[in-house]
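BUG: 3D viewer hangs when loading the predicted structure for this chain

Environment: internal workstation, default settings.
Expected: structure renders.
Actual: progress bar stalls at 90%.

Input used:
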Amino acid sequence: MLRLQRKFNRSSVDWCRVEMNRSIRQHLSNLATPDLSAVEISGSEIIRQHEWSASKILEYPFFDLCAPIIPSEKFDVVICSQVLEHVIDPIAACRSLAALCAPGGMVVVATPFLLRVHEAPLDLWRFTEEGLSRLLDAGGLDVIESHSWGNAACVRANLFRWAPWAPWRSLRNDPALPVVVWAFAQPKIGG
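Structure tokens produced before the viewer hung:
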């Protein structure tokens, strides 16, 4: 068991992100990705897991998501993963996500909830599933779907370090203990 445990501890998949990543991958795979353009704000490279007609990574904090954006280009898919908890003005950030998205496009947002503070350079916010939906709405986005995932064991395991996933770690969801929250949204028509 110890040898198996060491093998999985070298894994780069954080336990807290397994179900969220699976859901986002599935959602993006259902799109006709080779025909779509995409941008990712975060640099976590979800974007590299799919084929796009064009793609770009805008790394936070070098790309100021809170500054008003007059985009020279719009994208069919806008991905913002693990960034909104760090921005000074999350509503302005959501407006920027909407501005980057082409009409009829998709915005994918993921944030932590019951995870320890991780300054990069600041850590300011946490959103429940309902809170994230309201935030996206205030930022000019219509939420198509929202989700959360977590359980007590994952909360405990991530108190002091990022716990890697291993097969013996439960992926059972306890809606009362969301570790991560994510949503799929579209720019409001006329917004």
